[in-house]
Amino acid sequence: MIIMSKRTLVGSFDYPIIRATGTMSFTDHVIFAYEGRDQTKSWRIEEIQCWLNPMVESGGDGRTILNYCLSTDFLDDPEAGGTPESFRTYARQYNAQDNRGIAWGMTDYQNRDATTNDFRVPGQGIIPFGMIANGRRAINYLILNCMVVTENSALAAGETQVNYRIVMSEIKIDPTESILHQVRGMAQDVDTNRPN
C-alpha cells in the first residue's frame, strides 16, 4: 500500500421536498465517480463534514434531523408509496452492518421561527459535523445518502441544501486487493465478524 496524494471534495446539492410533521424523506447524490483502466487506485476516507444550510424558511420552531451515510454503491430506494415502514427499511441500510456504507453521521438542528427571517442552529454547537469513518476504501463511487425529518411544516424542494467536505487519500493497491474492495463495496449485509 502506497499513499500517493490527498484530495478534498467540497460541494452542495438541493434537497427535495421535506415533508411535514415527522414524515421521512430521502435523497442520494453521487459526489465522486472513478472510471478508468487503472484499477490499482483506491481512496481512503480521512475526514468528513456534512451540514444543512442555516438560513432557511424553517417551517416554525421545532427540530430537524439530518441522517446521512457515505456508501460505495447505491442503496435500495423505499418501496413506491413511501409508507413509514418502507422508509424505516430504507434507513436500516445506513446501519454499519451494510457493507456498502463506509461512513455515517447525524446532526440535530433546532429550527427557529424569527419575526422577519427563520434559521436553524445545530444542536451540538459550532461545526459539529464530523462523521464516523471506518477506514474502508472506495474504488469507483462515493454516494452521499441523506434523510431529513422535521417536526415542522413542509419545506419546498430546493429550500434546503446539503453541504459536504470530504478529505481522502489516494492509495495504490494491487489488482487483487482492488477486486476484493469492489466486491465488498457492492455486497449487502455481509457478516464482517468472520475472519478476513
Quick tags:
196 residues; mainly beta; 6-stranded antiparallel sheet; 4-stranded antiparallel sheet
Short description:
This protein is mainly beta.
Count the beta strands. Answer: 10
Helix/strand order, N-terminal first: EEEEHEEEEEEH
Structural class: mainly beta
Overall spatial form: globular
Low-confidence stretches: 189-196
Supply Rg: 18 Å
Percent of residues in beta strands? 35-45%
Q: How would a crystallographer describe the biggest sheet?
A: 6 strands, antiparallel
| Count of helical stretches | 2
| Helix percentage | 10-25%
| Terminal-residue CA separation | 17 Å
Overall mean pLDDT stands at 78
Explain this structure.
This protein is mostly beta strands and 196 residues long. The protein has a domain at 1-8 and 23-45 and 81-135 and 167-188. 10% of the residues lie in helices and 44% in strands. Strands 2, 4, 5, 6, 7 and 9 form a 6-stranded antiparallel beta sheet that branches. The longest helix is centred in the last third of the chain and has 12 residues, at 175-186. It starts with a strand and ends in a 10-residue tail after the last helix. 27% of the residues are buried. Residues 189-196 have low confidence and may be disordered.
Write the layout of secondary structure elements.
Elements (H helix, E strand, L loop, with lengths): L1 E13 L10 E9 L7 E12 L9 E10 L12 H8 L9 E12 L6 E4 L9 E2 L3 E2 L2 E10 L10 E12 L2 H12 L10
Antiparallel strand pairs: 1-10, 2-9, 3-8, 3-10, 4-5, 4-9, 5-6, 5-7
